[in-house]
Amino acid sequence: MKIAFSKSALPTEGAIVAGVLEGKLLGATAQSLDSETKGGLARAIATSRFEGKKGQTLLILAPSGLSVSRILLVGLGKAKDLDALGAQAFGGTAVGSLLSSGESEAFIGIDAYPGSTLSAAEFAANAGLGARLRSYRFDKYMTKQKKEDKPSLKKLTVMSEAAAEAKSAFARLDKVADGVFLTRDVVSEPANIIHPESLAEKAEALKELGIEVEVLGEKQMKKLGMGSLLGVGQGSERESKLVVMTWKNADKKDEAPVAFVGKGVTFDSGGISIKPAGGMEDMKWDMAGAGAVIGAMAALAGRKAKVNAVGVVGLVENMPSGTAQRPGDVVTSMSGQTIEVINTDAEGRLVLADALWYTQDRLKPKFMVDLATLTGAIVITLGHEYAGLFASDDKLADRLTAAGKAVGEQLWQLPMGEAYDKQIKSDIADMKNVGGREGGSITAAQFLKRFTNDVAWAHLDIAGMAWGKKDTATCPKGATAFGVRLLDRLVADYYEDKAGK
C-alpha cells in the first residue's frame, strides 16, 4: 500500500477518514463533511453508540452531498491523551477498517486538536506510520483466497496543512517500518523455509543497506570453543550459524558499538526433552529474538543512524535424533565455563551463552541487549502485555523501559540476585541450564548473566510478545516484530549524536 501526503482538501472519490474526539467532538475535517452532508454526520452519530472513544469507528456509506463512496469516523479519545501512539492507532484503525473493504484509495484528514502535544506534522507522520504497520499481510501461501478477503486498498493519502514536514518526518519512520516488516516476514515463515542457513541469508541481504555481515559456520564456531551453542543444533541436519552484523557511522569509527544479541532457534522441538505435540507448530517463531535484531539492524541502516551498532544472532534448529544432545550431557562454552544440560528444551540460553560471550569478547560493545523467546514462565508472569526485563545496569534498564513505553512495546523489570543464582548450581559442572520451576524466568536470566563478563547488559524475555493472537490497531494477528521499534528508539533517544552519554 502506497502512503502519500498532501494539503488538506475534501477528495472527490474513494473513502475519507476523519477523527472525532471523545464526547462526539468533531475535528475540522469531520465538521466540513458534516456541513457538506447537511448534518449527515451529526445524525449518524446521534443514532449510533459512537462517542469518539479511542478505537471506535462509524462507517457512513454513499454519503449524501458528496462524491466520495464512504466516510469513516475514527474515535481519538481525549485530546490530552493524543500522543504519537494515539496518532498511530488512528492511522492503523483506519487501514484496518478499509484494507479489504473494496476501496482502492482512501484519504485521511489530520486536524489540529487543542490539548494534544503533537504538532500537525508529527500527527500526520505518525498516522502514516500506523497505517503502514497495520497494512502488513502474510498471505503468500494462500492460493484460494476469496475476493472479499484480499486487500483492496492500494493508496492512502494523509492530508495535512503541514504535508511537506510530515512527509519528511515519515521518511525516517518508514525505514523503521521496513525493519518491522522484515522481522514479521521471517518470524511468520514456516520452519521448512526459515532455518539457520536461510535466515543467515536474510541477514546477509542487509549488505545492500551498507551493513557488514559475517557468517560463522560450525567449523569456525568449534575452533572458537562454542560448545554450548553447537550442542543445541547437533541433532539437526541443518548447520548452525552465528551471524555478526555491523553498522558503522563514518563520524564515529573509533567509538564502541551498541550491541544487540538474538536467540535464533528456527524450530524448537524441545530436542530429546521433546515438547507436547499440541501447539508445537508455534515453535517456528522461537527465532523471534534473532528476527528482531535483524530487523532493528535494517531499521538503523535504512535511516542511516548516526551510531555504531552490531547485531549478533545465534541460529540453530533444536531437533531429536541419534546425534542429539541428551539430558545429563556436559558442554563447554566459549567462556570456558561448563554446563550440565538438565533439559534440552532449555536451549535458548545455551545459544545465547556463546553469542553473548563472543559479543563482549570480540566486539567490545558499550552495552549488550539480548532478545529471546526464552521462557514460558514469563508468559505466566506477565501475560501478553509486557516483556520481561532483566538487567545488570540500572541506567540501561531505565532507558529501555522509557524507549519501550514511547513505542508501545512495554517492559517490566524483574529482580535478580544471589539466591536465584544458587538455583543453577550443578553437582558436576560449573552450572546447570535450569533451576527448577520456581522463578524460572529469573534463573534463566541469572544463567545468561554469567556470560556477560561484567559488560552492561539487559535481557528481554519476549516469549509473550513475539506473536499476537488477535489484531491490534497497528498489527494484524501473527508476528509482531516486538523489539525492532524499541531498539531503534533506544538508539535514537540515547546513543545517537550523544557520544553514548
From TrEMBL:
Residues binding Mn(2+) 2, per UniProt: 263, 268, 286, 347
SUPFAM superfamilies reported for this sequence: Macro domain-like, Zn-dependent exopeptidases
Location in the cell: Cytoplasm
EC class: hydrolase
Free-text comment on the cofactor: Binds 2 manganese ions per subunit.
GO cellular component, as recorded: cytoplasm
UniProt-listed InterPro entries: Leucine_aapep/pepB, Macro_dom-like, Peptidase_M17_C, Peptidase_M17_leu_NH2_pept, Peptidase_M17_N
Active site: 275, 349
Residues that, per the record, bind Mn(2+) 1: 268, 345, 347
Keywords for this protein: Aminopeptidase, Cytoplasm, Hydrolase, Manganese, Metal-binding, Protease
UniProt xrefs under Gene3D superfamilies: Leucine Aminopeptidase, subunit E, domain 1 (3.40.220.10), Zn peptidases (3.40.630.10)
EC number: 3.4.11.1, 3.4.11.10
Residues annotated as domain Cytosol aminopeptidase: 343-350
Record field: catalytic activity: Release of an N-terminal amino acid, Xaa-|-Yaa-, in which Xaa is preferably Leu, but may be other amino acids including Pro although not Arg or Lys, and Yaa may be Pro. Amino acid amides and methyl esters are also readily hydrolyzed, but rates on arylamides are exceedingly low; Release of an N-terminal amino acid, preferentially leucine, but not glutamic or aspartic acids
Any matching Pfam family: Peptidase_M17_N
Gene Ontology molecular functions: manganese ion binding; metalloaminopeptidase activity
Keyword Manganese: yes
GO biological process: one example: proteolysis
The protein's required cofactors: Mn(2+)
Family statement drawn from the similarity comment of this UniProt entry: Belongs to the peptidase M17 family.
Function, as annotated: Presumably involved in the processing and regular turnover of intracellular proteins. Catalyzes the removal of unsubstituted N-terminal amino acids from various peptides.
Name of this chain's protein: Probable cytosol aminopeptidase
